[in-house]
Write a structure and sequence with these properties.
Number of domains of chain B: 2
Structural class of chain A: mainly alpha
Helix content of chain A: over 70%
Oligomer: heterodimer
Strand content of chain B: 15-25%
Shape of chain B: globular
Number of strands of chain B: 14
Radius of gyration of chain B: 21 Å
Largest sheet of chain A: none
Number of helices of chain B: 15
CATH topology of the largest domain in chain B: Rossmann fold
Distance between the termini of chain A: 163 Å
Distance between the termini of chain B: 14 Å
CATH superfamily of the largest domain in chain B: Glycogen Phosphorylase B
Largest interface: A-B, 38 and 36 residues
Chain lengths: 226, 391
């Protein structure tokens, strides 16, 4: 495979990648940034298909579409008018001092680069934190939904429990009534037993009376026959 | 020291997932100590119906003891039970009923472990979610080492597994993400564990040209290797790839290798090659621009490690934390969460051979530092030696 030959009709624009020390996290941060910016490009161009090239690869485009023009800045064009002429003369006069100016500005430049780098890393961290936060928010919402569902289920269970408690109260009332009935039955049965015993005693007395009467009767008969 | 590997299925015909992982580890550990495998008679992972004969057999020099599955799984009943435990309030008994239905239900295997525990120093259980691991660890907790092969699967949140994760003597994790997930779920930090993973068998010679000639391939191509399945994110891959082609006009093709349960889109640049031999697979992988891994759930992607072993870069689904973590740690691949990121990442990868080479080199270095068999074997030995010293 030819290493210089791009694969496919489009290719990504040059991206600063340190090939000796590839850092996937950094590359992915740029890819995510480019991917996030892609919808904005789409709306700006108002041509979804053709404008699908991302900011990650500004020079790329579909084969049917001309690549978007990069911003034109002609750094070599000469300024116009008296003011510009004076500027040009001053620039010529100052040219010998440019190295000194650059040297003086170097620490500031370095500091600026470090600051920009630091800001960039902070941005990446913030993006990551934001994504994490979003994921946690989604998870939190899911848990709240789950908790809501569980609460609904608990309420249903409570309703069912209340119904059962009412049934239980009714059952207890029936049991109490049955208990009273039992008690009354026992009392009545006891009375009946006493009455039965009394009647039995009366029957025994009557039997004895009858027996006595019969004996007297027999005795009288004997006397009469004599 | 004698160790027993306990796994749901075992055989040369079973060429993926935790079963292959277990076989490779067992075959490598055989050089250090006597090794046996305790497994079921099942071959089909949907029903666990008995396929192999009960009893002993030698596979690549390892004694394999097979125990019958007393009751095959009824997929419908299993589906109902799973819905019930995932979507409704339930008791622990419901979870255990689900586990029994999930199988492979082999009480004879558990009985053998309990009865013969003195004959083995350690039992290494593979895959936390099956019957053999749950009841096996309950039978011999003080001798068990668990290789959970856990993914972000809803069943991992079941109570029975939270308790299970606190029981073994040690863990062998496949990735840092898996360790974090299990520890955060079960608070089992007191159980020692090492992130080990698995090595891979890279053939001594492989040739991309051989693959190109054999299959009449020209031009650049992406490759996907594995089961072509919904859970593996393949529908998203098809969607993203075809949209990428439409929007960029790229000439890149997509080759799919593996068994399929999905309808593959009819497109001249999407080619399904079916199940290939190991030699063909490595030939194909070595010639690919990028290996694409769209899977949502992975505990350790062996094919990703194989790509890195060959120095090929990877484009992975960032929604799978394991794959994303591996890419970040190795600097061997890019990842995407949505189509926009897929497009940018793929375009960058395809446009820069230097980037592909640099990512591939990083992946290979990561593989050599973590996943060669010497390192994997050494880590297993370390775990067992540490446990022996702690006794």
């Amino acid at each position: 495979m030819d290493s210089q030959k791009p694969i496919g009709a489009t290719q990504a624009a040059s991206v600063e990648i340190d090939y000796d020390r590839v850092n996937v996290a950094e590359i992915m941060a740029r890819i995510q940034k480019a991917a996030a910016e892609a919808p904005a490009e789409l709306s700006a161009a108002n041509e979804p298909r053709e404008a699908a090239t991302s900011s990650f690869s500004p020079a790329s485009a579909s084969p049917q579409t001309a690549p978007p023009e990069p911003p034109q800045t002609d750094w070599n064009s000469e300024p116009q008018g008296a003011k510009q002429t004076i500027k040009k003369i001053l620039r010529k006069l100052m040219r010998p001092f440019f190295p000194v100016i650059r040297l003086l500005a170097l620490p500031i430049h370095e500091e600026l680069r470090a600051t920009i780098k630091s800001l960039h890393e902070t941005n990446i961290r913030l993006d990551n934190l934001y994504r994490l936060l979003q994921m946690q928010a989604v998870e939190f919402d899911r848990k709240i939904d789950l908790a809501g569902e569980r609460m609904d289920q608990e309420e249903l269970r409570l309703d069912r429990l209340e119904g059962r408690l009412k049934d239980l109260d009714k059952s207890m009332e029936y049991i109490r009534l049955l208990h009273n009935l039992d008690h009354n039955l026992v009392v009545e049965l006891t009375k009946l037993k006493v009455e039965t015993d009394t009647l039995k005693s009366k029957v025994r007395i009557l039997e004895k009376d009858q027996e006595l009467t019969q004996r007297r009767e027999r005795a009288l008969e004997e006397q009469a026959l004599k | 020291m004698t160790i027993a590997f306990v796994v749901q299925r075992y055989g040369l015909e079973i060429n993926g997932g935790a079963e292959l992982h277990c076989r490779w580890v067992a075959e490598h550990m055989r050089t250090h100590m006597p090794v046996e495998v305790l497994t079921s008679c099942a071959y089909d992972y949907i029903t666990w119906r008995n396929h192999y004969p009960e009893g002993e057999e030698l596979i690549n020099g390892i004694r394999v003891r097979r125990f019958p599955v007393s009751r095959p799984r009824s997929p419908e009943k299993f589906g109902r039970l799973q819905n019930r435990i995932l979507e409704h309030e339930h008791k622990e008994q419901d979870e255990l009923a689900w586990l029994d239905e999930e199988g492979p239900t082999s009480p004879k295997l558990i009985h053998f472990i309990r009865k013969n525990q003195a004959a083995y120093d350690y039992f290494i259980f593979f895959s936390y979610r099956y019957y053999h691991s749950y009841w096996g660890i309950h039978a011999v907790p003080e001798k068990s080492i668990l290789v959970p092969t856990a993914e972000h699967d809803p069943v991992i949140h079941l109570k029975i597994f939270r308790d299970l994760f606190r029981m073994p003597r040690a863990f062998v994790y496949n990735s840092e993400e898996e360790r974090v997930m299990i520890q955060s779920l079960s608070r089992n930090e007191h159980v020692p564990g090492l992130v080990v993973g698995v090595g891979t068998e890279v053939p001594s010679s492989y040739a991309a040209d051989r693959f190109r000639q054999k299959h009449g391939v020209d031009g650049p191509y992406l490759i996907y290797i594995g089961r072509i399945d919904q859970n593996k994110g393949c529908p998203h891959l098809f969607d993203h790839f075809l949209r990428f082609k439409r929007e960029t006009g790229s000439a890149v093709k997509l080759f799919l290798i593996g068994s399929t349960v999905l309808k593959i889109p009819a497109h001249p640049d999407v080619r399904y090659l079916g199940f290939l031999s190991e030699e063909d697979k490595f030939d194909a992988l070595s010639g690919a621009e990028v290996l694409v891994m769209p899977s949502f759930y992975e505990s350790l992607s062996m094919v990703t490690l194989e790509a890195w072993a060959l120095g090929r870069p990877v484009l992975a689904n960032a929604k799978c934390e394991v794959l994303k973590g591996q890419c970040l740690r190795s600097n061997g691949g890019l990842y995407y969460e949505n189509y926009a990121e897929f497009k940018e990442a793929l375009r960058l990868l395809l446009s820069s051979e230097r980037l592909r080479a640099a990512l591939g080199d990083n992946g290979r270095a990561y593989y050599n530092a973590n996943y060669t068999w010497d390192i994997v074997e050494h880590k297993y030995l370390k775990i067992m030696n540490d446990l022996g010293a702690a006794r």
